[in-house]
Amino acid sequence: MGTIIKAEGLKKSFDGFEAVKGIDMEVEAGEIFGFLGPNGAGKTTSIRMLTTMVRPTSGKIIINGFSLDKDLTEAKASIGVCQQHISLDKDITVRQNIKHHAILHKMPAKEIGPRMGELSELMGLGPHMDKKVTELSGGWKRKTSIVCSIMHRPKILFLDEPTAGLDTKSRHMLWDMIRELNRSGTTIFLTTHYIEEAEDLCGRVAILNQGTIVALGSPKELCDSIGYITVEYSGDDGKKSMRQFPDRQSGKEFMAKLKEDTAMSLRKTTLEDVFLIATGEEYSEGGV
Ligand SMILES: Nc1ncnc2c1ncn2[C@@H]1O[C@H](COP(=O)(O)OP(=O)(O)OP(=O)(O)O)[C@@H](O)[C@H]1O
Ligand SMILES: [Mg+2]
Predict the structure, then answer these.
(1) Which residues lie below 8 Å from residue 12, measured CB to CB, with a gap of 6+?
(2) From ligand 2's centre to the CA of 141, what distance in Å?
(3) Ligand 2: centre distance to CA 39 (Å)
(4) Which residue's CA is the nearest one to ligand 1's atom 30?
(5) Is 283 close to ligand 1, i.e. is its CB under 6 Å away?
(6) Does residue 210's CB lie within 6 angstroms of at least one atom of ligand 1?
(7) How far is Cα 157 from Cα 31, in angstroms, rounded to an integer?
(8) What was the pLDDT predicted at 282?
(9) Is the CB of 65 under 6 A from ligand 1?
(10) Whose Cα sits closest to atom 17 in ligand 1?
(11) What is the rounded end-to-end Cα distance, in angstroms, of the chain?
(12) Are the C-beta atoms of 122 and 177 separated by less than 8 Å?
């Protein structure tokens, strides 16, 4: 299949503040790739660079074989973007927004109607198609924005927190849609704050912290890298701690050494544990 997104030494500074500090990353064609990180880690800035919306301060990007320095138009034609902060034209209808988007991406006129019908049905947008964007709830705006981003059948779809603000049913529908798009050959690059979402959907994830990739691999590889088993226990001060072990037996041996009245439990390590450790958001006593 080969590499479809490549970033080398990607950096972005705003007035001397380095928001992205040199990212090296390759995404394979056909992957669902997750980009995780706390608020302000640099996820949106990275996506904006990868999708040609913002120029990197330095570094190189290749999208679908096209360098953003040289072949911007070809690279742009390969991607669809659903931005974190929805960028629809508020004063026109949903239908008009979708149509504008299709025209902007040079879709043949005769394909626009059928494709719009197909996608509005998939997303349940039918009753809202002739409403102005200002009349829509946040969730329907998000769905409109997603339909816009996939109208032209992009090879790569960038979704910046696509499920933020969606109700449970819509979220599940969107997951199904992402899987379906991926099955039909679209590479997906996704950011999310819902770690279980990434664990469930993504073949590989990168964890970003303060502008740097601090972990990269499949959820299983990342869990195994810190220890497949996690023991949670309360310290003498009542503070909850966790520690990782390569197997159940070593976890049990550790538990046997804890004071008898200690609250403790043993479970499989999750991607959330990896995230907390990689981003330094949770104390881990010598477990890594
Ligand atoms: N246009 C800008 N001008 C100045 N600083 C910016 C600009 N865009 C982003 N930043 C800063 O860069 C850092 C990274 O922001 P970014 O939006 O990429 O983070 P994020 O990982 O997407 O966060 P979130 O999870 O909150 O969406 C933040 O400190 C932010 O304040
Ligand atoms: Mg963001």
Answers:
(1) 18, 19, 20, 42, 45, 46, 49, 54, 56, 57
(2) 17
(3) 7
(4) 40
(5) no
(6) no
(7) 11
(8) 59
(9) no
(10) 44
(11) 34
(12) yes
Torsion of CA 276, 191, 122, 177, to 10 degrees: -60
- CA–CA separation, 36 and 193 (whole Å): 7
Mean per-residue pLDDT pooled into runs of 10, the chain (288 residues): 95 97 97 97 97 96 96 93 90 96 93 94 91 92 92 95 87 89 94 94 97 97 96 86 95 93 94 95 47
Cα of 161 from ligand 1 centre, angstroms: 14
Single out the residue of 160, 138, 166 nearest to residue 79, CA to CA: 160
Amino acid letter for position 256? A
Ligand 1 atom closest to the CA of 208, numbered from 1:
21
Picking from 233, 222, 232, the residue whose alpha carbon sits closest to that of residue 270 is 222
Q: Which CA distances in Å does 92 have to 97, 104, 136, 224, 225?
A: 7, 16, 12, 50, 50
For residues 272 and 214, what is the distance between their CA atoms, to the nearest angstrom?
14
Alpha-carbon distance of 140 to 129, in angstroms, equals 10
